[in-house]
Amino acid sequence: MSAATTAKFQTAAILFLAVLAAMLGLGAVVVFATPLQAQAASLMTGIVAVSLIVAAPVSWLLAGLVDGHLSTYRPASPYRWA
């Protein structure tokens, strides 16, 4: 792996947790705030599975965007507080 791919993978791994949490939270709100709560046990299993599958490619795509912005960020003085 090249250094760029390694950095993108590390960024994607961090973003994966945030994307997964957002997707699980959104799915839980949809299930429990609607009349679907009667089937919550089976629906939440599906939501967890779909979230795990979808979060990986979404975080990989977002990592490319974040890496692009981080590589161009150059502070004027890295040790200046204000």
Write a structural description.
- The chain has helices at 3-32, 40-72.
- It has 82 residues and is mostly helical.
- The longest helix has 33 residues, at 40-72.
- The protein has a domain at 19-72.
- 77% of the residues lie in helices and 0% in strands.
- It contains 2 helices and no strands.
- The chain is elongated.
- Helix 1 packs antiparallel against helix 2.
Describe what is shown at a glance:
This protein is mainly α and 82 residues long. It is 77% helix and 0% strand. The protein has a domain at 19-72.
Structural class: mainly alpha
The number of strands is: 0
Radius of gyration: 18 Å
Number of helices: 2
Percentage of β-strand residues: under 5%
* Major β-sheet profile: none
Runs with pLDDT <50, length 5+? none
| Arithmetic mean of pLDDT | 85
H-E string: HH
Distance between the termini: 38 Å
Q: What sort of overall outline do the alpha carbons produce when their principal axes are compared? A: elongated
> What is the helix fraction of residues, given as a range?
over 70%
